[in-house]
């Protein structure tokens, strides 16, 4: 419980830093002007966040230094919603660098909203709810394997 509370408080601070850096990169370096209200921008944002999260998660299992912070997440003996909250404080620092290239074309508001949707979706992945399990495992969670 204490780790979850500490992790959540840290996440609130970190999200602010991440969004400020992402916005700075977008304002100074973006080379494609995508309108935030275009459906294609939102589709690109969704696919980009999902793709980059997939690669971060894969790297976190294959790289020793990233695994050192990610293994906390896999230390639970039960598969429930608290498993999704069990994150190392350092994990977000590793993952943010994978998302920054999106700032070259995806507006900050689109990125941030899709990142939040991805976070909410992660809660469902860490449950044993069977209603969406076929979709989430065969289409969304591992589309490239």
TrEMBL record:
Q: Where in or outside the cell is it found?
A: Endomembrane system
Coiled-coil stretches, from where to where?
A: none
Q: How does it sit in the membrane?
A: Multi-pass membrane protein
Any one GO molecular function term: glyceryl-ether monooxygenase activity
Q: Where are the transmembrane segments?
A: 38-56, 96-114
- Boundaries of each Fatty acid hydroxylase domain copy? 42-131
Q: What is its main location?
A: membrane
State the UniProt keywords alphabetically: Lipid metabolism, Membrane, Oxidoreductase, Transmembrane, Transmembrane helix
Xref: Pfam families: FA_hydroxylase
* Domain of life, per lineage: Eukaryota
Q: Which GO terms describe its biological process?
A: lipid biosynthetic process; membrane lipid metabolic process
Which Gene Ontology terms of cellular component type are present? endoplasmic reticulum; membrane
Q: Does the keyword Membrane apply?
A: yes
What is the name attached to this protein's record?
A: Fatty acid hydroxylase domain-containing protein
Q: Which organism is it from?
A: Biomphalaria glabrata
């Amino acid at each position: 419980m204490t780790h979850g509370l500490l992790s959540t408080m840290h996440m609130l601070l970190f999200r602010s830093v991440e969004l400020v850096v992402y916005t700075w990169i977008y304002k100074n370096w973006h080379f494609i002007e995508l309108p935030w209200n275009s459906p294609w921008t939102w589709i690109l944002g969704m696919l980009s966040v999902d793709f980059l999260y997939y690669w971060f998660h894969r790297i976190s299992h294959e790289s020793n230094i990233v695994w050192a912070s990610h293994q906390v997440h896999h230390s639970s003996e039960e598969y429930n919603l608290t498993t999704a909250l069990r994150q190392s404080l350092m994990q977000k620092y590793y993952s943010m660098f994978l998302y920054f290239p999106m700032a070259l074309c995806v507006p900050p508001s689109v990125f941030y909203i899709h990142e939040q949707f991805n976070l909410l979706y992660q809660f469902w992945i860490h449950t044993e709810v069977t209603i969406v399990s076929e979709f989430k495992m065969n289409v969304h969670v591992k589309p490239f394997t």
